[in-house]
Amino acid sequence: MYKLIVMLHLLGASIWVGGHLILSLGILPSALRARDPAPILAFEQRFEKIGIPALIVQILSGLWLAHYWVPQHAQWVRFETPQATLIAVKLGLLALTAVLGLHARLALIPRLTAAMLPQLAMHIVAVTLLAVGFVIAGSGIRLGGLAW
Fold it and tell me: How many domains does one find in the chain?
């Protein structure tokens, strides 16, 4: 069961991180140059159909994996082991991702104009960096920490 959950988690991460890297590095720069939010909105509309389910798979599988590595939920935020520390980091990254995502979805995207594009761009870059942080922290859990 562990291997299946890890595979699902990695598949979800591939979709989530890959989609945000495409958005940040491939679509956002030209949209900013053109001052046109349309390419971003078009990408978001298509990506949400697979990105949000991928994120849900990551959350569910991530909670299962966190329980596997640190069975006592209270220890997830006690920073007593490298795994517990990285689980706490991933939970923090998830909270920040949720806050930024909800703000973008509820406050920015419904009223998006060319003038608001830089503000949305900051959200996009931040969520992308958080997604990369998820990958780094997640690999550290399996490898015993982030120390080289």
Answer: 1
Residue 124, domain member (yes or no): yes
Q: Which helix (H) or strand (E) holds 140?
A: helix 117-143
**Each residue's pLDDT tens digit in the chain (148 positions)?**
999 999 999 999 999 999 999 999 999 999 999 999 999 999 999 999 999 999 999 999 999 999 999 999 899 988 888 889 999 999 999 999 999 999 999 999 999 899 999 999 999 999 999 999 999 999 888 776 665 5
Task: Tell me which residue range forms the domain holding 77.
Answer: 2-143
CB 141 within 8 A of CB 69: yes
Is 70 within a domain? yes
The CA dihedral of 77, 3, 48, 136, to the nearest 10 degrees, is: 50
Tokens read off for 76:
């997830």
CA distance 110 to 79: 39
- Tell whether 8 is covered by a domain: yes
- Is 148 among the domain residues? no
| Beta carbons of 50 and 15 less than 8 angstroms apart | yes
* pTM score of the predicted model: 0.91
